[in-house]
From TrEMBL, chain A:
Keyword Ribonucleoprotein: yes
Source domain of life: Eukaryota
Lineage: Eukaryota, Fungi, Dikarya, Ascomycota, Saccharomycotina
Name the UniProt record assigns to this protein: YALI0F24365p
Entry's family note: Belongs to the bacterial ribosomal protein bL19 family.
Record organism: Yarrowia lipolytica (strain CLIB 122 / E 150) (Yeast)
InterPro entries: Ribosomal_bL19, Ribosomal_bL19_sf, Translation_prot_SH3-like_sf
Keyword set includes Cell inner membrane: no
From TrEMBL, chain B:
Record-linked SUPFAM superfamilies: Ribosomal protein L14
Molecular function (Gene Ontology), one example: large ribosomal subunit rRNA binding
Similarity comment: family membership: Belongs to the universal ribosomal protein uL14 family.
Biological function: Component of the mitochondrial ribosome (mitoribosome), a dedicated translation machinery responsible for the synthesis of mitochondrial genome-encoded proteins, including at least some of the essential transmembrane subunits of the mitochondrial respiratory chain. The mitoribosomes are attached to the mitochondrial inner membrane and translation products are cotranslationally integrated into the membrane.
Protein name: Large ribosomal subunit protein uL14m
HAMAP family associated with the record: Ribosomal_uL14 (MF_01367)
Species annotation: Yarrowia lipolytica (strain CLIB 122 / E 150)
Matching InterPro entries: Ribosomal_uL14 (IPR000218), Ribosomal_uL14_bac-type (IPR005745), Ribosomal_uL14_CS (IPR019972), Ribosomal_uL14_sf (IPR036853)
Gene Ontology BP, a term: translation
PANTHER family xrefs: 50S/60S RIBOSOMAL PROTEIN L14/L23, LARGE RIBOSOMAL SUBUNIT PROTEIN UL14M
Keyword terms, alphabetized: Ribonucleoprotein, Ribosomal protein
């Protein structure tokens, strides 16, 4: 019913052809079409997700250095209790005791704890992130821990960390002195 | 995650030691304050003023002040996916022009403080993380 009512009114409004030609037409740039890679399943791989993660892993960690540090099967892996230094692309360094090693593919992360100006700081780094420039093990764990995840060292009288940055610097200076004696 | 009645350490030399949040500024009522947010607070504990001394302290017990949060126990997520969390909640008293009331800070400050426009607070800190 409604459509029938509107139709005649529209016809009445319609402008003559002469007038319509005066409008300026906007020039549009030619449309670009993105050409994507073929779907992994069609390439013959089993799983789309593994295909993508493998590709990204090669991009972010071409030499496999980070993988060796994180993989639980490798001998040189980072273990809870190790002191690790991480350098990020903005030029800052963070030294901390490893509380948790979380191996979960591309989003593998380390939870580090340190104290700066007597305030405890916990930082979680995604190791395969391109913002993480380098990961260095400075000192292996000096004692045996009973747990895999050392959340309990926070605020512990004996086990909690001190200012690791300062102690690492001190140790380096001591070593230097010993070498040049 | 700081809101009404939260007790926060004050880390500048204004004289205030412990403050209580009474209002989170410019946030919806159900929200909470994080690093870089402004609050209104009451000074609950202040450094004692010795008798007969001429030193005038900038913050006294019972005064209402504004402050900016610089550290939180709740972890902060960074754009690159990393997290940072501190062992305590801390703030710095500021004036209306977002400048610190004191002239010295003891303790680290999160990077977000500078990003939110409190450059003077960040420049006073011994370390920005």
């Amino acid at each position: 019913m409604l459509a029938r009512l509107i139709r005649p009114s529209l016809a009445a409004v319609r402008l003559p052809a002469m007038q319509m030609a005066t409008f300026k037409t906007i020039k549009r740039e030619p449309k670009t079409v993105n050409i994507y890679e073929r779907h992994p399943r069609r390439l013959g791989t089993e799983n789309a997700l593994t295909h993508v993660t493998d590709k990204l892993m090669k991009q972010f960690d071409p030499q496999g250095v980070k993988m060796e540090l994180m993989n639980p099967k490798s001998a040189d892996r980072i273990k809870p209790g190790d002191i690790v230094q991480i350098k990020t692309t903005d030029g800052s360094l963070f030294t901390g005791l490893t509380m948790v090693v979380d191996f979960r593919g591309l989003s593998s992360n380390l939870l580090l704890r340190s104290k700066i100006t007597k305030i405890g700081i916990d930082r979680r780094f995604k190791i395969f992130s391109p913002t993480v420039e380098s990961v260095k093990i400075i000192r292996r764990a000096t004692q045996k821990y009973t747990a895999e995840r050392l959340y309990y060292i926070r605020g512990h009288k004996r086990l909690d960390v001190g200012d690791l940055e300062a102690s690492v610097k001190k140790a380096a200076a001591k070593r230097k002195k010993f070498l040049f004696k | 995650m700081l809101y009404l009645k939260s007790l926060i350490n004050c880390i500048d030399n204004s004289g205030a030691l412990l403050v209580e949040c009474i209002k989170v500024l410019r946030k919806s009522p159900k929200n909470y304050a994080g690093v870089g947010d402004k609050i209104v607070c009451v000074v609950k504990r202040a450094r004692p003023i010795p008798n007969g001394s001429s030193i005038t302290q900038k913050a006294r017990k019972g005064e209402i002040k504004r402050a900016v949060i610089v550290r939180t126990k709740k972890e902060i997520r960074r754009p690159d996916g990393s997290y940072i969390q501190f062992d305590d909640n801390a703030c710095v008293l500021i004036n209306d022009a977002n400048e610190p009331v004191g002239n010295r800070l003891n303790g680290v400050v999160a990077k977000e403080v500078r990003e939110r426009g409190f450059t003077k607070v960040a420049s006073l800190a011994p370390r920005v993380l």
